[in-house]
Amino acid sequence: MSSAPGPYPAPVGKTSRRLEWPFLPPNLRVFIERKCGSPVVEALSQTSGFTPGFASVLVCADGSRHFVKAASVKAQRTFADSYREEARKLAALPTGVPSPRLLWHLDDDWVALGIEYVDGRAPRRPWRASDLDTVLDALEVVADELTPPPAGLDLDTLVDDFVDMVSMWDHIKAVRPDLPHLDEAAALAAGFADVVGGNTLVHTDIRDDNLLIDGDGSVWLCDWNWPVVGVAWFDTLCTLIGPRGDGLDVEPVLATRRLTRDVPPEAIDRVLALLVGYFLKSADDPVPSTSPFLREHQRWQGEVCWHWLCERRSWQ
Predict the structure, then answer these.
(1) Which of 60, 159, 222, 309 could form a disulfide bond with 272, CB atoms 3.0-4.6 angstroms apart?
(2) Which H, E and C letters describe the chain, residue by residue?
(3) pTM score, two decimals?
């Protein structure tokens, strides 16, 4: 492991290889155009993120714009299931949550979602303090709106969803036995379940490529595939990984933000240790052809979390 994480290694906004509009089945394109209400004249593929499903802004002949996702149930079952889950969760979100709304949903040979188009940009990389403050403001609104979670969603808990990450430290011990404080870090991760229980719907995947900032400065949270029920401060902590790696001092943020300022330091450290195990183990998995930068992204995130944890624990 390097002595410092270094700059973010992936090309920002160009991390995935997605299906393009001309390669969708003709009957699916006809269906989508009918839902849009006008023929599609241009499709702007959204190449951020790390999944290969179709995700494009469709520009129509009448000047309207539409954001559409799609995945084949047969050829991309995992991603079709993910989009199906996203549709279910988007439909249940309260109107006070700043998220693009689900407009229509197809579930057949393909799973397709028509989602409200938002004219916005992702937070700039490297992260700026102004963008981070705006995003964290939005996360506080989301936590308020989603505590308790919407009725009837039947979500997993954060503990149940993340428990398998604890054993990922076994892999790290095996492949990096010279890493200092291995046993201490693994013990911290093993205690994560004691600190993440809660009654908030947690997004769990807040990164710059899942956020949009519109012209009015409002933040929109996208990609609601994997929310769970857990502690309200989890999303705020995860959001700080990228800014920390990009050079921002995030400790004062933890100390002052409403969702994190009263969280015991040990609780933060347990979650950071859990994330180190997940990211560094995942970084050693095979590289998917449709997402060539995924493992570099995960390795960088793991190193950021590791150096942050070491600093907080005063580990050399």
Answers:
(1) 309
(2) CCCCCCCCCCCCCCCCCCCCHHHCCHHHHHHHHHHHCCCEEEEEECCCCCCCCEEEEEEECCCCEEEEEEEECCCCHHHHHHHHHHHHHHHHCCCCCCCCCEEEEEECCEEEEEECCCCEECCCCCCCHHHHHHHHHHHHHHHHHCCCCCCCCCCCEHHHHHHHHCCHHHHHHHHCCCCCCHHHHHHHHHCHHHCCCCCEEECCCCCHHHEEEECCCCEEECCCCCCEEECCCHHHHHHCHHHHHCCCCCHHHHHHCCCCCCCCHHHHHHHHHHHHHHHHHHHCCCCCCCCCCHHHHHHHHHHHHHHHHHHHHCCC
(3) 0.95
